[in-house]
UniProtKB/TrEMBL annotation:
This is HBS1-like protein. It comes from Magallana gigas. Keywords: Cytoplasm, GTP-binding, Nucleotide-binding. Its main location: cytoplasm. Residues 206-304 form the GTP-eEF1A C-terminal domain. SUPFAM superfamilies: EF-Tu/eEF-1alpha/eIF2-gamma C-terminal domain, P-loop containing nucleoside triphosphate hydrolases, Translation proteins. The lineage of its organism: Eukaryota, Metazoa, Spiralia, Lophotrochozoa, Mollusca.
Length: 320
């Protein structure tokens, strides 16, 4: 636990990433309890340390749960506790039971169709297949869809899910969509299938609100980062530091700061080398979140506030 939780460990980073990407409910499996002879004091110590950090990261007590278990022996995973030493002090749910208690998330079924592509492959029949999660709306065989940022139209030949044929897929579903009528070479991981009448934006520059984590060097104008969004990573540049914000209230505390340091919040402008298909957070929460990394570390999480420049529109809406 200490190796993953102390400075440099990944437990902290993973928890921050999950919260920044919109995960509001968290189950912590306290594994390998058999190696400490099912010690309640050890379990309580981990829950106390991790619980304090998770609350600081933005999680609510009601949305956090902790399950002592042993993956090696299968204890407290699917069946009620049988180990006497654990049963003497733990009376709660099994891991699977607690997962089943998660509250269902509302999906944006009524918004225009969006599907972020995570894989592309050629099948045996005509056309080709793309795999991805339906972020909003729905898709069914016979639909005409727009593939961004290529700007090509395609026809949905079939929709499958879990290796079974379906006629449609809805927001939240992971589906395979067979497309015809366009060149497969124009589709990549990170491309988006969308409603031709309400296309997703192909952004070249955005304004975003970011929260900075641990950072060795201050962020200044011209700072290079790797933009992580859905299934893509793109080189990007911080082009402008608009203002620094109070992390708690969101109020502007300084306009046009010279630099941004760790544990601060700010509004910045980010420019990409290639178009990135995204949406504003206020319109599509899932498609408006991103992470910034540098040197193998996550340095910030952000929300898209406005698209300033698109692939087809090179003039900017703001001045340098």
């Amino acid at each position: 636990f200490e190796t993953g939780f102390e400075s440099g460990g990944q437990t902290r980073e993973h928890a921050l990433l999950a919260r920044s990407l919109g995960v509001s409910q968290l189950l912590v499996a306290v594994n390998k309890m058999d190696t400490v002879d099912w010690s309640q004091s050890r379990y309580d110590d981990i829950v106390k340390k991790l619980g304090l950090f998770l609350k600081q990261a933005g999680y609510k007590d009601i949305d956090l749960s902790y399950i002592p278990c042993s993956g090696l022996g299968g204890e407290n995973l699917t069946k009620a506790v049988s180990e006497p030493k654990l049963a003497s002090w733990y009376k709660g749910s099994t891991l699977v039971e607690q997962i089943d208690k998660f509250k269902a998330v509302e999906r944006p079924m009524d918004k225009p169709f969006r599907l972020i592509i995570s894989d592309v492959f050629k099948g045996l029949g005509s056309g080709f297949s793309v795999v991805g999660r339906v972020s909003s709306g729905s898709v069914q065989a016979g639909d005409r869809v727009l593939v961004q940022p290529a700007g090509d139209l395609a026809v949905v030949k079939a929709v499958t899910m879990d290796d079974s044929d379906n006629t449609c897929g809805f927001a939240g579903d992971h589906v395979t969509v067979v497309l015809t009528g366009m060149d497969m070479a124009h589709v990549n991981v990170g491309s988006v299938l969308c409603d031709p009448q309400n296309p997703i934006k192909s952004a070249m520059r955005i304004r975003a609100r970011i929260v900075i984590f641990n950072l060795e060097l201050p962020i200044t104008r011209g700072f290079t980062v790797v933009f992580h969004y859905q299934s893509i990573t793109e080189p990007a540049i911080i082009k402008r530091l608009n203002c620094q914000l109070n992390k708690n209230t969101g109020e502007v505390i300084k306009n046009k700061p010279k630099c941004l340091v760790k544990n601060s919040s700010a509004v910045v402008e980010i420019e990409f080398e290639r178009p990135v298909c995204l949406e504003m957070y206020k319109d599509y929460k899932d498609l408006g979140r991103f992470m910034l990394r540098q040197g193998g570390h996550t340095i910030a999480a952000g929300l898209v506030e406005e698209v300033l420049k698109t692939k087809s529109k090179t003039e900017e809406n703001s001045t340098e």
